[in-house]
Amino acid sequence: QVQLAESGGGLVQAGDSLRLSCAASGRTFSSYTMGWFRQAPGKEREFVAAIKWDGGSTYGADSVKGRFTISRDNAKNTMYLQMNSLKPEDTAVYYCAAARTTSLRAYAYDYWGQGTQVTVSS
To answer: Can you tell me whether residue 109 is helix, strand or coil?
Structure first.
């Protein structure tokens, strides 16, 4: 069992930066692929970024490449999403999730946090 809690969301202006954190409980955090997803009002949940258990491989959606960076610190049971050059279209609830396999698909993730709101004003 893994419990996840996101933090770091907020209201920012276009061009600003935010860093989201995902704190995990459980001793097996380091064995999971971790991912970030987001969901805007009226839209489906979409993949943002993922990182393998050892941090050796990362994956990002085309819409965030070059702006968002995913990382993890297994010693701290924490994953991060550094978001730079934010745009109004990045506005969404951001969720972190854990999966036993490496996937970009939401259905592959077994555990989810409650989400944190990110709002980018123009």
So the answer is: coil
